Amino acid sequence: MARYASAYLLFFRAVFHFFLVKAYIMSSPSDPVDPRIAEDLRVAQRGCDELLVVSEFAAKLARSRATGMPLRIKLGLDPTAPDIHLGHTVVLNKMRQLQDLGHTVIFLIGDFTAQIGDPSGRNATRPPLTPEQIRENAKTYYAQASLVLDPDRTEIRYNSEWCDPLGTRGLIQLASRYTVARMMERDDFTRRFKGGVPISVHEFLYPLLQGYDSVALKADLELGGTDQKFNLLVGRELQKEYGQEPQCVLTMPLLEGTDGVEKMSKSKGNYIGITEAPDSMFGKLMSISDTLMWRYFELLSFRSLEDIGALQAEVAGGRNPRDAKVLLAGEIVDRFHGAGAGARALEQFNARFRDGAIPDDMPAVTAGAAPMGILKVLRESGLAASASEAQRNIEQGGVRIDGDRVEDKSLLLPAGTYVMQVGKRKFARVTLT
């Protein structure tokens, strides 16, 4: 029975959310609770890691229903790279769900804070971006986010609007509202301090300024990844300092990249960009492991948890997991490239591998640091015993990367994850870091 247990994980999670909402309702027996609020809570908590504080957010929802005033829901992203990937859309999807409930979503581009560099999860000081880099990256951010959010119902803001006018005096006054002891409660700062790794003073300013964004926007709820929890809670505290009702905090899990190990990141080469060509997006989604597929379903798919649980049970009962992966890849490609794009990408995918079926499971290998020559990649991944054998296989037309035949023996591969094939039967999912 153990192999069926994971098939019902999503079902039990849905049941947990039901009883969580029920517990809230029963905690206030004197106040009749609109069942629509319970449903709003269920939508908000789907796939989330944590919602702080559930009772406060329920009260905000009730007030919004009673007054007709939508909640102000904030998501901030620093334009550290020009493209948004599927990992970013985990929180964007949640924003869209809350937007569809009638609330105001604020897509905040951190053009000011990007000049500091977010130290979250870092083991060293993050190099700040230049104003020119920030402007260039910000150009595409909102356009790409609009592929998920409804642009007609989205408030787009830049935090330079209030951070630039703050000035030195205002910055000092802001810094006086938070203690160093509280700042050192942050895990990454504590680790670096204990390890003797330098912490620049300006890094303390980042969570303060992110929190000040919430003050400036009068946010009711702020979203972020689990690595942003400290910063989001700073926003709550600063709002209290400025006499505002504190925002609630909703954190979403960090999505693993195609390697299934590191969080999705362009610098790691394990990302899937939302503006990538349909064929590329489809192929990368098909390359993820069967286990990781269910994580992607929960965090990226718009299917109901019940539908996903039923599909997982079918796979546990013998259905080919490739069928489920095709459904996932098709849904994602359709979302970003239009209806029918997923079906066309599937046709192209099948055509590339017509000479030999792709196994549903294949060895996953981390070959080393990129860039790496194709001969070494084949040797390090165990697909060829030697460089000379790898060269012969290429000369004979027997080597493919993501379905495309390799002809250049001096090919250098950048960081990323690739489905590599030698002959008709040797496959490996190879990651270069």
Automatic annotation (TrEMBL):
Keyword field contains Ion transport: no
GO molecular function: ATP binding; RNA binding; tyrosine-tRNA ligase activity
Domain RNA-binding S4: 372-433
Swiss-Prot/TrEMBL GO biological process terms: tyrosyl-tRNA aminoacylation
Self-association and partners: Homodimer.
Keywords in alphabetical order: Aminoacyl-tRNA synthetase, ATP-binding, Cytoplasm, Ligase, Nucleotide-binding, Protein biosynthesis, RNA-binding
Motif ('HIGH' region): 79-88
Localization (cell): Cytoplasm
Listed InterPro entries: aa-tRNA-synth_I_CS (IPR001412), aa-tRNA-synth_Ic (IPR002305), Rossmann-like_a/b/a_fold (IPR014729), S4_RNA-bd (IPR002942), S4_RNA-bd_sf (IPR036986), Tyr-tRNA-ligase (IPR002307), Tyr-tRNA-ligase_bac-type (IPR024088), Tyr-tRNA-ligase_bac_2 (IPR024108)
Stated role: Catalyzes the attachment of tyrosine to tRNA(Tyr) in a two-step reaction: tyrosine is first activated by ATP to form Tyr-AMP and then transferred to the acceptor end of tRNA(Tyr).
Residue sites binding ATP per the record: 266
Enzyme class per UniProt: ligase
Family matches, as Pfam families: S4 (PF01479), tRNA-synt_1b (PF00579)
Motif ('KMSKS' region): 263-267
Tagged with keyword Cytoplasm: yes
EC nos: 6.1.1.1
Catalytic activity entry: tRNA(Tyr) + L-tyrosine + ATP = L-tyrosyl-tRNA(Tyr) + AMP + diphosphate + H(+)
Family the UniProt entry places it in: Belongs to the class-I aminoacyl-tRNA synthetase family. TyrS type 2 subfamily.
Annotated coiled-coil segments of the chain: none
One GO CC term on file: cytosol
Protein name: Tyrosine--tRNA ligase
